[in-house]
Amino acid sequence: MIKVLFVCLGNICRSPIAEATFREIVKQKGLADKIECDSAGTAGYHIGQLPDHRTMKNAEKHGLKLTHKGRKISLTDLDDFNHIVVMDEQNFEDVYELYYKTKHQPPAAEKVFLLRDHDPETRGIKEVPDPYYESEPFFEEVYQIVWRSNEVLVEHLIDKYHLLATD
């Protein structure tokens, strides 16, 4: 089983929608028995809470129901997940530092990376913008970014692990 963890700051906006879109793409490709995912935050601000209501509203508009409850990334996540996919540079640094302090070596580029490393429309921008302090239309922009990035990420994992859909 390939395990992917999506990480942002509070685990209520970007990482839950990244988790949900990734899960949907994996399901559509018939790979739910081969790839699983979760999400977490680098901060513990929203542990146990559902995602931001605007994230949930946007997800529902696209046929996704979010039930994830916020949690903070743990030391066991570093071993439990094959890939830790981070939304922005600051949280990438936080995850990288946590990994380095725990493992006494830097993570491999395939272990910890930015989601937009897989965005076909990145235009040099490497971060998924945080919509928390923005209006509802900004949540749609974030959805579009994570959807297209996850489409490419899933294809990358299919190639990397030589995965075939279940017939």
Question: Strands, helices and their partners?
Answer:
Layout: E1 2-8, H1 14-28, E2 35-41, H2 53-61, H3 75-80, E3 83-86, H4 89-103, E4 112-114, H5 136-161
Parallel strand pairs: 1-2, 1-3, 3-4
Helix pairs in contact: 1-5, 2-5
Describe what you observe in this structure.
- Residues 2-156 form the Phosphotyrosine protein phosphatase I domain.
- Belongs to the low molecular weight phosphotyrosine protein phosphatase family.
- Pfam families: LMWPc (PF01451).
- This is protein-tyrosine-phosphatase.
- It is a single chain.
- 43% of the residues lie in helices and 13% in strands.
- It contains 5 helices and 4 strands; from the N terminus they run βαβααβαβα.
- It has helices spanning 14-28, 53-61, 75-80, 89-103, 136-161, and strands at 2-8, 35-41, 83-86, 112-114.
- Strand 3, helix 4 (89-103) and strand 4 (112-114) form a beta-alpha-beta unit.
- It starts with a strand and ends in a 6-residue tail after the last helix.
